[in-house]
């Protein structure tokens, strides 16, 4: 596989892409002085804007998890479901502003840039917390790429099922295998994974943003149609009813899992620093990032409340885990097909948004450890008809191919949906969205110990830890239930 620099496509789309030197680029004073092509750190000028940052955030935040929110609200009820949605949105925005201020140390230009989440933690906290941050971040990123492979295959299979139900009736036994779809998704990622770095992903994120609005809007529109038809399910302030819809234990575990689903639906802190590193230095990156975070979180919250709330109003306590793939809707089948196709296109881009930090982390480490290795550092250029100039790096080719193959195989072994969404959200939410941003803010702002502000921040961290633990337990219980009923490599 070759790394393809599709400059012709970028320029034709007229999008502001940031370009970045390779990981082993050192500070170049003479280059910086020229002020034309390079930033203050010697790397090629970043050209990211509010628009591109917002697109990255929406790509990371609005995932197919939006379609499971009606199920989550069904478990929690109108009151708790809506309150938890708004609460997680507020917490995510609040802590994202703290994290944005930590991009530079000190927090204003010309402070030293911190290119990754781990770099930020290293600059402000140091010690073992850097390794803990890396474990949480990259473990979560790996989990997200696996989860997106699963979800994309579910949507691809749903397209075939929708056509089958349309032809044979809604009671027909339309059974299709997920594995060919996972393999097809993996093949696409093998090609896209050769995009050299995060800074080249703006065009993918903008496409994904459009796709996410499309399928979320379709889900909302179909739900509204169901509500206006009068054929709606039973809803309530507390959601599913013990003894009617679920047992007492199912109510408890599903509620915990639903909280995890909602937490996952806002998870973008794990790539926030990498997104911010694509921004131009004027105006200041932290100010642009805060505006982009507000726009991204506000936009997605509106869609979440509409999709989750109207979906729950349509299906009530029997709301499916996914409105478009668990067949809450059958007709019009062509619209269901289009919505699921939009989900797949969105997930193709979102996979790269979460995978690129992993790729760059490993490649940076290897470049630093073996700087003389031709296999790791050499770039070979060539021209391909209709594509243009391409570069080949054998290490990048081999390592990224192995990663995509590995995540695809793991997805084939564990193809679960709601439980995985909840588990990923629970695991990533507390350390990366709450603990580290708050701890770094306390250190950066010199918040006085035992002051009212300090106590409030510590209380926020403790409460979110409890929520994460409960959501983790609920998701694990859901996974165990799924494993008991699942036979590997069967439809």
From TrEMBL:
<dbReference type="GO" id="GO:0015293">
    <property type="term" value="F:symporter activity"/>
</dbReference>
<feature type="transmembrane region" description="Helical">
    <location>
        <begin position="53"/>
        <end position="72"/>
    </location>
</feature>
<keyword id="KW-1133">Transmembrane helix</keyword>
<dbReference type="InterPro" id="IPR013057">
    <property type="entry name" value="AA_transpt_TM"/>
</dbReference>
<feature type="transmembrane region" description="Helical">
    <location>
        <begin position="459"/>
        <end position="481"/>
    </location>
</feature>
<feature type="transmembrane region" description="Helical">
    <location>
        <begin position="201"/>
        <end position="224"/>
    </location>
</feature>
<keyword id="KW-0769">Symport</keyword>
<feature type="domain" description="Amino acid transporter transmembrane">
    <location>
        <begin position="47"/>
        <end position="480"/>
    </location>
</feature>
<feature type="transmembrane region" description="Helical">
    <location>
        <begin position="294"/>
        <end position="315"/>
    </location>
</feature>
<feature type="transmembrane region" description="Helical">
    <location>
        <begin position="397"/>
        <end position="414"/>
    </location>
</feature>
<dbReference type="GO" id="GO:0006865">
    <property type="term" value="P:amino acid transport"/>
</dbReference>
<dbReference type="Pfam" id="PF01490">
    <property type="entry name" value="Aa_trans"/>
</dbReference>
<protein>
    <recommendedName>
        <fullName>Amino acid transporter transmembrane domain-containing protein</fullName>
    </recommendedName>
</protein>
<dbReference type="GO" id="GO:0005886">
    <property type="term" value="C:plasma membrane"/>
</dbReference>
<feature type="transmembrane region" description="Helical">
    <location>
        <begin position="78"/>
        <end position="95"/>
    </location>
</feature>
<keyword id="KW-0472">Membrane</keyword>
<feature type="transmembrane region" description="Helical">
    <location>
        <begin position="335"/>
        <end position="355"/>
    </location>
</feature>
<comment type="similarity">
    <text>Belongs to the amino acid/polyamine transporter 2 family. Amino acid/auxin permease (AAAP) (TC 2.A.18.2) subfamily.</text>
</comment>
<keyword id="KW-0813">Transport</keyword>
<keyword id="KW-0812">Transmembrane</keyword>
<keyword id="KW-0029">Amino-acid transport</keyword>
<keyword id="KW-1003">Cell membrane</keyword>
<feature type="transmembrane region" description="Helical">
    <location>
        <begin position="420"/>
        <end position="438"/>
    </location>
</feature>
């Amino acid at each position: 596989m070759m790394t393809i620099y599709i400059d012709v496509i970028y320029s034709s789309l007229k999008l502001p892409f940031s370009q970045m030197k390779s990981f082993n680029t050192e500070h170049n004073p003479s280059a910086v002085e020229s002020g034309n092509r390079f930033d203050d750190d010697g790397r090629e000028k970043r050209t990211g804007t509010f628009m591109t940052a917002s697109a990255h955030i929406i790509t990371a935040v609005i995932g197919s998890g939006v379609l499971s929110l009606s199920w989550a609200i069904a478990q929690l009820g109108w009151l708790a479901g809506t309150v938890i949605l708004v609460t997680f949105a507020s917490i995510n925005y609040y802590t994202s502003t703290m994290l944005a201020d930590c991009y530079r140390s000190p927090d204003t230009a010309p402070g030293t840039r911190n290119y990754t989440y781990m770099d930020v933690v290293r600059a402000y906290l140091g010690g073992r917390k850097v390794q803990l941050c890396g474990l949480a971040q990259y473990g979560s990123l790996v989990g997200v790429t696996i989860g997106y492979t699963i979800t994309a295959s579910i949507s691809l299979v749903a397209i075939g099922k929708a056509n089958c139900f349309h032809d044979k009736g809604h009671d027909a036994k339309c059974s299709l295998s997920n594995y060919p779809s996972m393999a097809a998704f993996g093949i696409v990622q093998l090609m896209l994974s050769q995009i050299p770095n995060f800074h080249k992903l703006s065009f993918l994120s903008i496409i994904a943003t459009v796709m996410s609005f499309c399928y979320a809007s379709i889900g909302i529109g179909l739900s509204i149609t169901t509500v206006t038809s009068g054929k709606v399910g039973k809803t309530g302030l507390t959601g599913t009813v013990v003894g009617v819809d679920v047992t007492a234990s199912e109510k408890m575990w599903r509620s915990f899992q639903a909280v995890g689903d909602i937490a996952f639906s806002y998870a973008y802190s794990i790539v926030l620093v990498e997104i911010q590193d694509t921004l131009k230095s004027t105006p200041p990156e932290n100010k642009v990032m805060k505006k982009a975070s507000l726009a991204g979180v506000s936009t997605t919250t509106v869609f979440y409340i509409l999709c989750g709330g109207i979906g729950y109003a349509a299906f009530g306590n029997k709301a499916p885990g996914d409105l478009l793939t668990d067949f809450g809707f059958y007709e019009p089948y062509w619209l269901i097909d289009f919505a699921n196709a939009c989900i797949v296109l969105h997930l193709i881009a979102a996979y790269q948004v979460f995978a690129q930090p992993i790729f760059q982390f490993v490649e940076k480490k290897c470049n630093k450890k073996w700087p003389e290795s031709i296999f790791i550092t050499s770039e070979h250029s060539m021209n391909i008809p209709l594509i243009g100039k391409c570069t080949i790096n054998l290490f990048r080719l081999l390592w990224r191919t192995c990663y995509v193959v590995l995540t695809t195989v793991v997805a084939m072994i564990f193809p679960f949906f709601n439980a995985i969404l909840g588990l990923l959200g629970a695991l990533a939410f507390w350390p990366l969205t709450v603990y580290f941003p708050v701890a770094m803010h306390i250190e950066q702002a010199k918040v006085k110990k035992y002051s009212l502000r300090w106590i409030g921040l510590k209380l926020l961290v403790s409460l979110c830890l409890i929520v994460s633990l409960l959501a983790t337990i609920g998701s694990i219980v859901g996974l165990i239930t799924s494993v008991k009923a699942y036979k590997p490599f069967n439809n």
